[in-house]
Design brief:
The protein has one domain (8-92). Helix content is 0%, strand content 33%. The chain has strands spanning 8-10, 17-22, 30-32, 35-36, 38-39, 63-66, 71-77, 83-85, 88-89, 91-92. It has a six-stranded antiparallel sheet, with no helix packed on it. It has a four-stranded antiparallel sheet with strand order 4-3-8-9, with no helix packed on it.
């Protein structure tokens, strides 16, 4: 799939929605709950829930990164499915510490 920064993708098995922050290095399949995610304008729910192996959940407001591909997304709507790229799970991106205001 082609990805562009700012594009919104939706899960077909839960309520998860993400926005692409950084595009991947090559062609990859963005997945949630074990199923391929679709662009917001083309997403239709399947009626199935996430597969048990991919039901770790996605948290709104968190950034998720996939190191090998370089893909980074921001969750804008939480859901029951966990995010993955070609079946390999994303990791939660750590936030930066803010400087002290002493």
């Amino acid at each position: 799939m082609d990805f562009k920064p700012g594009w919104r993708w939706c899960s077909v098995v839960c309520d998860t929605e993400v926005v692409v922050v950084k595009v991947p290095n090559g062609a990859v399949s963005l997945q949630c709950g074990g199923e391929a995610m679709m662009p917001k304008d083309h997403a239709e729910k399947t009626g199935r829930g996430p597969s048990p192996d991919h039901a770790g959940g996605t948290v709104i407001g968190k950034r998720y990164v996939h190191g090998p591909s370089g893909l980074e997304v921001l969750a804008v709507k939480s859901g029951e499915g966990s995010l993955s790229v070609d079946g390999e799970r994303f990791t939660l991106k750590d936030g930066k510490d803010l400087p002290s205001s002493d």
